Amino acid sequence: MKLSSGSLARLINELAGLPGIGPKSAQRLAFYLLNAPLETAENLANAILEARKNIRYCSLCANLTDAEMCPICADPRRNREVLCVVEEPKDVLAMEKVRAYKGLYHVLHGAISVRDNPGPDQLTIQQLMNRLQKGQIKEVILATNPTMEGDATALYLAEQIRPLGVKVTRLAHGLPVGASIEYADEITLTRALEGRQELNKQ
Amino acid sequence: MKLSSGSLARLINELAGLPGIGPKSAQRLAFYLLNAPLETAENLANAILEARKNIRYCSLCANLTDAEMCPICADPRRNREVLCVVEEPKDVLAMEKVRAYKGLYHVLHGAISVRDNPGPDQLTIQQLMNRLQKGQIKEVILATNPTMEGDATALYLAEQIRPLGVKVTRLAHGLPVGASIEYADEITLTRALEGRQELNKQ
């Protein structure tokens, strides 16, 4: 494609490098950014630069934050005896959205891969063990993904944590709400059966 | 959604303002930009800022360009007797991609709206008429979109240009290649019938 402007070609090229953005979308976004008010384009560019400059890992939970400690760790109303271990910062977002959890988090920044990297050393597992050794945390909820890597990570962490006398739990596996049993895969159905619970008598 | 970082919230928010990017995509792109090499994020931000700084309209055809005159207008190998009138810079890209056209372009930056703005004054029609009055151009190909606005614009331009004695043509309407007659809409089929061509005897 011959472009009439080098700056436009470069912009389309950079946009097309983003995940999930194909060449057509990149072109559409580039023309949008050229036609939008100058402020819109500048705000986006500055938001990218500032995010890269300001965002670091929370010194306690390794979540993304602008400050030394993230707002969740710094919040005195959170229950400091329960710790939810997740793979990525986006999992914290997902957990916070449901508003059902009031404890603290620990972000691993990955999962133990069965085949190759990252191994346990590249995750924030040592940092997690240091937190647990202080003795304030009574329960660790392993909220890694229900994938091969997430399961391997949960098993590894459970083994590491149990000797400390801390209660270790895992998010329940089973049928997602709204799903139909007919279309559930076998592993999900097996897990749902294994995790079956007695209905309380009313 | 409670975010652990103001910079992250701002970045997600700016990304979600782009057309075709929903909240989930914006979140995914933001985490990508944070995890990617610093250079990737900076290149994108700088490409946006530089495109806004450098890109202007070509003084001849009003296409987007970094220079006073766009590479197509400046190219001595292009046929300066044929002019293709399009609505938007992206239409020039589409035409150039097929490599079947060797003339020059004129970008209107919109189409005449049947209901409201932009009216003929807000497009580059006066600039187009000035080009035609110089007498070098022998044919104007109206390549506005086959929409109500594009058709209105083509009709308006044809009326304006004909008194100058310049040949005015329009891109053919009809069935797109690969389409089936069964699913073609009535207007397309009517146009295809009207524009039917005799098959040459072999």
Task: Summarize, please.
The structure is a homodimer of 202-residue chains. Chain A has 202 residues and is of the alpha/beta class. Helices cover 43% and strands 12% of the residues of chain A.
Number of domains of chain A: 2
CATH class type of the largest domain in chain A? Alpha Beta
CATH-scheme architecture of the largest domain in chain A: 3-Layer(aba) Sandwich
SS elements, strand count of chain A: 6
For this structure, the quaternary state is homodimer
| Amount of helix of chain A | 40-55%
Helix count from the secondary structure assignment of chain A: 8
CATH topological fold name of the largest domain in chain A: Dna Topoisomerase Vi A Subunit, Chain: A, domain 2
Basic shape of chain A: globular
Strand order of the largest sheet of chain A: 4-3-5-6
Give the CA-CA distance, first to last residue of chain A: 69 Å
Rounded to an integer, what's the Rg of chain A over CA atoms?
Answer: 22 Å
Q: Summarize the main sheet of chain A.
A: 4 strands, parallel
- SSE class of chain A: alpha/beta
Give the SSE order of chain A as H and E letters: HHHEEHEHEHEHEH
Task: Name the beta content range of chain A.
Answer: 5-15%
Runs of chain A in which pLDDT lies below 50 for 5 or more consecutive residues are none
Round the mean pLDDT of chain A to the nearest integer and report it: 88
